[in-house]
User: Which sequence fits this backbone?
C-alpha cells in the first residue's frame, strides 16, 4: 500500500495530504450542493414562467378593478377581494353552466369508458369476420380531424332537431378511437389463455369483463377518465355551435358572456375563468399519477 | 339452440356496436357527407342545392383569402410545433434528475394540458392588453399585440404552444425514462461530458418519441380554434384566419356550407398527407 | 497501464447500509485481479467506486500516485464492461466501439484503425454495421469488450461480463479474455460470482463477503491455504465437504472423531491442534471431493452411502452420506459403486483442513 502513496506524497507529509483531501472533499460537497441548487433554481424559474398566465389570472381575479387599471406594476393585489367572484356568479348563471359541464363531461367520460372497453374487448379477445378491417377503420378515424366533419355533424343534429339539448352535447362524443386503442394496448398485454381459461370455467363474456378485465385495467380506466373528462370539460367548438340558450351552455361558452373589455368586467371575467379552470386542474392534479401510469408507461413503448 | 348459436356469432359485433354506431353517425357519415357537400352549392339551411362539381375547389384555389389562410396556418403550425416541443423537451430534461420538489415541478410543467383553449385565450387577452397587460409592463413596451397584424399570429401561436407544452412534457418525460440509465454510466466512463451525453445519447434515444410527438403536435395545432375565436376572431385583417376558423366563418357566418365543406376536405387531405409522409420518413430515418 | 491502490475504502449507502468496509488492496501494473464473492458482497460496488460511478464514502483511491476519490469518471481514464453490456442501442457496432474515441476527439483514420483492429481480435469484423438489437448475447458481449479495448486506458474494469452467456460461450470467452490480457499487458479488475471464472482468469483473487475482504491471494494459494471456512467452501468445485468432528487423543495420537468414524491427523495438524488447545473440542473437518481416494490405509477408510452417482467421463462424483453428513467425493471412473450401496472411500489425511467452530478460521493456516 505504502509504495504508491509514498510515491505521490514524497514531497508532502501525511498531515498535509489529509488537509488537502479535506479541502477537496469540502469543495466537492459545495460544488454538488451548488449544482443541485442551480437545478432547483432553474426549474423554479421555468415553472414560474410557465405558470405565469395562471398565477396572473388568480392575482387579477382577487384584485379590485381599481387596482387593475394602472400603468404601474400590479402583480400582487394589495387589497385582495372575493367580490369579483360574487359578481361573476350574479351576472351570468355560472352555476348552471358548471352543472351542465359536469353533467356533460361526466356522461362523456362514463360513456367512452363503457363503449371503448367493450369494443377493445371484442377486438382483442373475440374472433369475428371483418375484425381487422373494422379495427383498421377505427384507427383510420384518428386521422380525421373533428373540425373537418363538424359542419356535416351540425347539419345532421339540426336535422334531428337535437340542437340546444344535453344529448347533442353528449352523444357524438360517446366513443373515441384513441380510447379503443389505449384499452386494446392494455388488453394485448394479457395472454389470450386468461380469457380461454375463464371461458372454460364457465365465465360469460360480460362476467369476464366485469370481474377480470376491469379490475386488471384500473390504471388504463383511470388514465382514460382523467383525459376524457378534461377534454370534455374544455370542449369549445361543438358546444359553441349547438347550444344557444343559457340553460344548455357549458362553461367554456358561457364564460364568453363575460368577455368584454370595460374595466369592471375584466376582473370579473378572469374571476369566472379561474372558477372554471379550477375543476379541470383539480381533476388533473388528482389524476396525474393515474394518467401518466396508464397512458405513457405502456403506450409509449409500442 | 339455433338461437343460441346465432347470438354467439353475433356477440362480438354486439360489443363493438355502441362504439361503431357513434362512429357511423358522427364520423363516417359526416365524413362522406362533407365530401358530398363540397361539390354542391347549398342554401342557408345547409341543403345541397346545385351541383357544381369541382367548382368550390377551383373557387378556393383561386381565392387569395384561402391561400392566405393556408399560409397563416402553415406559419402558425411551424411556430406552435417548434416552440411547444422545445418547451416540452426543456422541461422534461430539467425535471429528469431528481431534486427536492420534483413532483411539484412536474405537475406544474404538465398543467397547461388541463386548461381550455378558450379560457387560456381570455387570460392572454388581459396579459396582452396594450395598457394594463402584464406583458407590456414587464417588457416596458407599448405594443398592441392583438390588433397589430405583425404580432397577432405570433401571440396566438405562442398561446397554443403553451397549451400544448404540457402534454409534450409528459411525452418527453416518458421517453427519457425509457432510456436505460446504464448507457449514461458507460458514457461517463467512456469519457463523455454532459453535452456529449445529451447530443449523442439523449436526443437519439428520444428520437422515436420525438417523432410521435411531432405527428401528434402537427395534427393538434392544425385543429386550433378556441384561441382564435376568443382572442382575435381571425383578425386583424385576416392575419390569424387559421383554416379551421375560416371553415367556421364560411359555414356559420356566410352560410357557404359547400365552400366550407371543400375547405374541410382540403384540411383532411393535408393532415393525411403529412401523417403518411412522416410515417414513410420514419421508416427510413428513425431506426432504433 | 497503471498501479491502483485502495486504502480503507468504505461505502455506506444513504439508507445507512454499509456495502463495503475498510477495503485495502494494492493492484500492480498488468495484474488480472478478480473480485469474487456471493451476490451482495460489495464486489460490484467496489468496482463502481473505482470507476467513479459510486461515491467513495471514506478512504482513498489512488491511481498512478494520484488521489482519485473526487475525480469524475470521464477523467479517470478507465474503461468498463458492464454486466448488461450497456451498448448504445441507436449506434451501430462500429459506432459503439468508436464512441469513447469520438468523444475524445481522436482523428477519423486513427479511430478506424483501432476499431477494425479490435474487431479483428474479437472476430466481429462482419458485424460492424449491425445495430445492437440484431446481435446475439455472445456478440453483444464481444462488442462490449471491443468498446473497452479500442482505448488504452489505465485499467479495464469488468463487471460480471460473462454472466449472461451460456456455458459453452463462457468457456470460450474466458480463453479469449486471458489472451487479451496477455496481448495487451493490461491491468484488469474483474468482478464475478463464479469461482471457476475467478480461478481460471485471475493472477490474483480477492474473496469478499459482506463488504469485507476475506483473503486476497493467487489462485493456487487460495486453494491450498484458505484463510477460513467461507473461502475454503467458495473456492473449488464441487465445494469442500465440512463435517463437525471432535478432537481427541487416542492411542497417544491426535484424531478427529464423528459418529463411529475416527481419523488420525498427521504430525503438523496434531501440533496445531494442541497449540490451539482444541483437544476435547469440536471443529470442522474440511475435505475436498478430490481428496478422497479409492484405496488407502484402513484407518483412513470412510463408509459412504451413495445417493447419487454422476458419471462425468474422466471422473465420477459420488454424492452421499457419511452418517448424517452430506459428502461429495470425486473418484476415478473405474471405481465400482452403485446408488444405494455403501462405498469405501479413503480420506487423504495430508490434504485435510480444520476450521474453528466459532470463528470458522483455518486452524492450519500458514
Assistant:
Amino acid at each position: 500500500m505504502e509504495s504508491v502513496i509514498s510515491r505521490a506524497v514524497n514531497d508532502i507529509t501525511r498531515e498535509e495530504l489529509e488537509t488537502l483531501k479535506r479541502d477537496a472533499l469540502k469543495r466537492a460537497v459545495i460544488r454538488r450542493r451548488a449544482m443541485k441548487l442551480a437545478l432547483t433554481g432553474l426549474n423554479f424559474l421555468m415553472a414560474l414562467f410557465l405558470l405565469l398566465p395562471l398565477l396572473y389570472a388568480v392575482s387579477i381575479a382577487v384584485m379590485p378593478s381599481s387596482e387593475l387599471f394602472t400603468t404601474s406594476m400590479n402583480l400582487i393585489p394589495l387589497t385582495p377581494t372575493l367580490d369579483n367572484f360574487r359578481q361573476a356568479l350574479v351576472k351570468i348563471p355560472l352555476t348552471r353552466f358548471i352543472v351542465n359541464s359536469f353533467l356533460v363531461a361526466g356522461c362523456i367520460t362514463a360513456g367512452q369508458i363503457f363503449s371503448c372497453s367493450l369494443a377493445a374487448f371484442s377486438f382483442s379477445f373475440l374472433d369475428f369476420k371483418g375484425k381487422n378491417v373494422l379495427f383498421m377503420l377505427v384507427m383510420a378515424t384518428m386521422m380525421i380531424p373533428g373540425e373537418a366533419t363538424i359542419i356535416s355533424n351540425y347539419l345532421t343534429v339540426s336535422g334531428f332537431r337535437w340542437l340546444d339539448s344535453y344529448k347533442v352535447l353528449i352523444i357524438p362524443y360517446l366513443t373515441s378511437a384513441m380510447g379503443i386503442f389505449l384499452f386494446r394496448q392494455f388488453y394485448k398485454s394479457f395472454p389470450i389463455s386468461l380469457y380461454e381459461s375463464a371461458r372454460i370455467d364457465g365465465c360469460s363474456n360480460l362476467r369476464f369483463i366485469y370481474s377480470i378485465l376491469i379490475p386488471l385495467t384500473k390504471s388504463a380506466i383511470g388514465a382514460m377518465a382523467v383525459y376524457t373528462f378534461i377534454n370534455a370539460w374544455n370542449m369549445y367548438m361543438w358546444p359553441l355551435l349547438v347550444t344557444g340558450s343559457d340553460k344548455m351552455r357549458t362553461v367554456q361558452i358561457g364564460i364568453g358572456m363575460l368577455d368584454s373589455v370595460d374595466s369592471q368586467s375584466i376582473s370579473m371575467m378572469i374571476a369566472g375563468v379561474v372558477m372554471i379552470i379550477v375543476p379541470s386542474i383539480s381533476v388533473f392534479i388528482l389524476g396525474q399519477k393515474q394518467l401518466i401510469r396508464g397512458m405513457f408507461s405502456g403506450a409509449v413503448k409500442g | 339452440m339455433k338461437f343460441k348459436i346465432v347470438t354467439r356469432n353475433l356477440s362480438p359485433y354486439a360489443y363493438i356496436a355502441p362504439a361503431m354506431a357513434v362512429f357511423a353517425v358522427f364520423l363516417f357519415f359526416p365524413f362522406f357527407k362533407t365530401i358530398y357537400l363540397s361539390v354542391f352549392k347549398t342554401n342557408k339551411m345547409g341543403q345541397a342545392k346545385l351541383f357544381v362539381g369541382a367548382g368550390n375547389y377551383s373557387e378556393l384555389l383561386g381565392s387569395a383569402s384561402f391561400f392566405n389562410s393556408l399560409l397563416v396556418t402553415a406559419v402558425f403550425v411551424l411556430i406552435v410545433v417548434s416552440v411547444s416541443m422545445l418547451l416540452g423537451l426543456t422541461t422534461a430534461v430539467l425535471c429528469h434528475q431528481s431534486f427536492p420538489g420534483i413532483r411539484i415541478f412536474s405537475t406544474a410543467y404538465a398543467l397547461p394540458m388541463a386548461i381550455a383553449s378558450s379560457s387560456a385565450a381570455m387570460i392572454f387577452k388581459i396579459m396582452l392588453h396594450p395598457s394594463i397587460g402584464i406583458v407590456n409592463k414587464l417588457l416596458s413596451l407599448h405594443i398592441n399585440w392583438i390588433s397589430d397584424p405583425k404580432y397577432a399570429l405570433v401571440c396566438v401561436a405562442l398561446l397554443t404552444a403553451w397549451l400544448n407544452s404540457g402534454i409534450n412534457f409528459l411525452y418527453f418525460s416518458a421517453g427519457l425514462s425509457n432510456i436505460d440509465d446504464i448507457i449514461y454510466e458507460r458514457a461517463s466512463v467512456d469519457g463523455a461530458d454532459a453535452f456529449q451525453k445529451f447530443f449523442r445519447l439523449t436526443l437519439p434515444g428520444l428520437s422515436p418519441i420525438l417523432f410521435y410527438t411531432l405527428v401528434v403536435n402537427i395534427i393538434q395545432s392544425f385543429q386550433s380554434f378556441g384561441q382564435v375565436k376568443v382572442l382575435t376572431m381571425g383578425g386583424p385583417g385576416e392575419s390569424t384566419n387559421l383554416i379551421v376558423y375560416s371553415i367556421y366563418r364560411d359555414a356559420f357566418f356566410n352560410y357557404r356550407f359547400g365552400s366550407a365543406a371543400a375547405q374541410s376536405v382540403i384540411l383532411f387531405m393535408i393532415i393525411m398527407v403529412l401523417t403518411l409522409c412522416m410515417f414513410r420518413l420514419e421508416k427510413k430515418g428513425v431506426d432504433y | 497501464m497503471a498501479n491502483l491502490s485502495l486504502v480503507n475504502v468504505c461505502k455506506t449507502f444513504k439508507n445507512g447500509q454499509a456495502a463495503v468496509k475498510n477495503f485495502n488492496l494494492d493492484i500492480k501494473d498488468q495484474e488480472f485481479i478478480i473480485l469474487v464473492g456471493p451476490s451482495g458482497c460489495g464486489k460490484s460496488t467496489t468496482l463502481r467506486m473505482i470507476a467513479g460511478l459510486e461515491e467513495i464514502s471514506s478512504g482513498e483511491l489512488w491511481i498512478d500516485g494520484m488521489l482519485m476519490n473526487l475525480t469524475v469518471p470521464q477523467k479517470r481514464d478507465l474503461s468498463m464492461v458492464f454486466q448488461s453490456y450497456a451498448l448504445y442501442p441507436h449506434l451501430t457496432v462500429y459506432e459503439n466501439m468508436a464512441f469513447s474515441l469520438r468523444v475524445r476527439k481522436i482523428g477519423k483514420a486513427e479511430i478506424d484503425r483501432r476499431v477494425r483492429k479490435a474487431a479483428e481480435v474479437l472476430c466481429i469484423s462482419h458485424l460492424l454495421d449491425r445495430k445492437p438489437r440484431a446481435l446475439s448475447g455472445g456478440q453483444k458481449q464481444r462488442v462490449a469488450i471491443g468498446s473497452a479495448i479500442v482505448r488504452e486506458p489505465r485499467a479495464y474494469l469488468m463487471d460480471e461480463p460473462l454472466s449472461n452467456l451460456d456455458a459453452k460461450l463462457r468457456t470460450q470467452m474466458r480463453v479469449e479474455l486471458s489472451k487479451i490480457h496477455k496481448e495487451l499487458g493490461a491491468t484488469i479488475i474483474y468482478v464475478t460470482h463464479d469461482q471457476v471464472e475467478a480461478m481460471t482468469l485471475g493472477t490474483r483473487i480477492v474473496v469478499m463477503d459482506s463488504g469485507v475482504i476475506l483473503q486476497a491471494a493467487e489462485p493456487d494459494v487460495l486453494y491450498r491455504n484458505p484463510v477460513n471456512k467461507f473461502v475454503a467452501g467458495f473456492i473449488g468445485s464441487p465445494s469442500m465437504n465440512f463435517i463437525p468432528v471432535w478432537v481427541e487423543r487416542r492411542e497417544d495420537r491426535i484424531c478427529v472423531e464423528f459418529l463411529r468414524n475416527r481419523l488420525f491427523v498427521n504430525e503438523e495438524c496434531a501440533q496445531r491442534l494442541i497449540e490451539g488447545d482444541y483437544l476435547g473440542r469440536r471443529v470442522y473437518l474440511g475435505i475436498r471431493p478430490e481428496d478422497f481416494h479409492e484405496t488407502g490405509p484402513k484407518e483412513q477408510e470412510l463408509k459412504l452411502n451413495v445417493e447419487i452417482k454422476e458419471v462425468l467421463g474422466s471422473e465420477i462424483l459420488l454424492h452421499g452420506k457419511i452418517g448424517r453428513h452430506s459428502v461429495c467425493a470425486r473418484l476415478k471412473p473405474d471405481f465400482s459403486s452403485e446408488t444405494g450401496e455403501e462405498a469405501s472411500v479413503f480420506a487423504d489425511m495430508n490434504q485435510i483442513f480444520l476450521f474453528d467452530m466459532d470463528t470458522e478460521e483455518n486452524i492450519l493456516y500458514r
